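Hi V.,

You were right to ask for the full record rather than a summary. Here it is.
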Amino acid sequence: MPKRALFLLLTLLIPVSFFGCGGGKDEDALLDEEEETTTAAAAPAAGAPAAAPAAAAAGSATLTGRVAFEGTAPSAEKLKMDADAFCKAAHAAPAYSQEVVVNANNTLQWVFVYVKEGATGSFPAPTTPVVIDQRGCQYHPHVFGIQAGQPLKILNSDATLHNIHALPKKNPEFNIGQPFKGMETVKKFDVPEVGVHFKCDVHKWMGAYAGVLNHPFYAVTNDQGTFELKNLPAGNYVIEAWHEKYGAQTQNVSITGSESKTVDFSFKG
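Predicted structure:
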């Protein structure tokens, strides 16, 4: 065979031999390899744990106090629940508005007390939800605190229709209907905001308020008008007492070490 013809024959046969005898990979094998590479790239490198959230500043100081009421306590407003037979039947005794609750010792219940300024550090939001319950056609609790990003579980314990209508100014508004007993909805607030109002468009007398913060230093006064802020780090703080009708008051407080301090507030009727 002439040399030129032999050269042309070998030129045609070499590529066939290369791809047909295992010298390369078929299309399926190439696809499998690509998928494996992508998965491996998405996985964290061995021995390199994910970064943990920044630790919260832990303190050992405690701030306690009471919120007094000055003046003549207003008469408790009786709630008229006749529009809903279930709501009316749910109360053997009359139910009253919780807008202004003056305790027997002339203190105020349902005052939200919190660190307004001075809390530094990172405070990851708890994963355990705060629960607001619609029970007896009233919100429980009437005032509560929650951290930004923490789940809020909205529960209907009544066998009647409720809708919970949140009216924040800094966070998105929502309005959720819950027609059946036992229904639950979970929501979150992402931005700190004190005095978020909740209402029920079905039952006009229902109302509640939330304080949304980026730290855990808050409390609500009880039936003795007292509050307690625990685990405060040393520092200088602005403490605010917020009431839905009487507004807000602030005081400056300096705390060192593990001391306990008392800060009292007073609202006039």
